[in-house]
Amino acid sequence: MTEPERLETMQPREQEPVTNQFAVGYVPGVMPGKWFRRWEDRRHKPALSQYPVRADSWREALTSGEIKACFVRLEWEGQDPSLEELRQEFRAVALYEELQVVVLDKDHILTVAETLTTDELTAESEPQKKPVTDEADMAVELTAAGVGPVILPMSVARLHHRKDVTYRELTDAPTIPVVLVWPQDLNEEDEAAVQQFVGIVRGRSANSGRDTPPSQDKKAQEDKKKKQPQKQQPKAQQRRGGKGPRGAKAASASKNARRRRPR
After folding, report:
1. Residues 173, 151: contact at Cβ < 8 Å?
2. Strands 69-73 and 176-183
3. What own/partner pairs with CB < 8 Å and gap ≥ 24 does 205-210 have?
4. At 10, phi and psi to the nearest 5?
5. How many CB atoms lie within 10 A of CB 66?
6. DSSP SS3 for 145
7. N or C: where does the chain have the smaller number of CB atoms within 10 Å of the terminal CB?
8. What pLDDT, in 10s, does the model give residues 79-129?
């Protein structure tokens, strides 16, 4: 089964529309597992559902409400917008830049190099036409068969890795932006969930006030006050001869001196 077919089988096509869950999608190659785990570890509500989507259908999944947000790769597919163009229709935050690599068969002469430039690649062989993400597995299979190298985003190359191919970074190729996208017209509850998830993706700690529900934040402040030691009142300075260790000693000495005085 090819990757596009596998992804199709993972889509919740026969399920009822997702209404009581926070569904987050991701295109092939993107690996948001660490952020999903942080959401679950912090026991955020609502429950988060992970939805792999095809690279050519994330727009439809967002606008239909099937998912509330999606990890998307820009400027790779022919129809991909720039970040500025994307923000005219959706809300989006830039996450990181992904390297481009060339996938080579294991016996290719260029595997002796640790990295390559585009000129070095084309001087030795003719790469395949750049494939769309959803057909990348077929391009890698052709590379393994000796048809020619193929240039891919690094995460896509890793997704379709096999024993008879390897890859090398293209040092002069532009990087590919990866962003988190969500609709502009989400209701208040869904928008709040997305903003909380954005905080996790951006590295906000669990103790951050912006990442803590108000009820939990108030309770944490009350617990902190209870743990603080009460300030002790300063002791009043005792007079000489008064009560206390020093005063008692002085009074005793004075009394003994009067007894010994001759008459």
Report:
1. yes
2. antiparallel
3. 206/42
4. -90, -10
5. 21
6. coil
7. C
8. 888 999 999 999 999 999 999 999 999 999 999 999 999 999 999 999 999
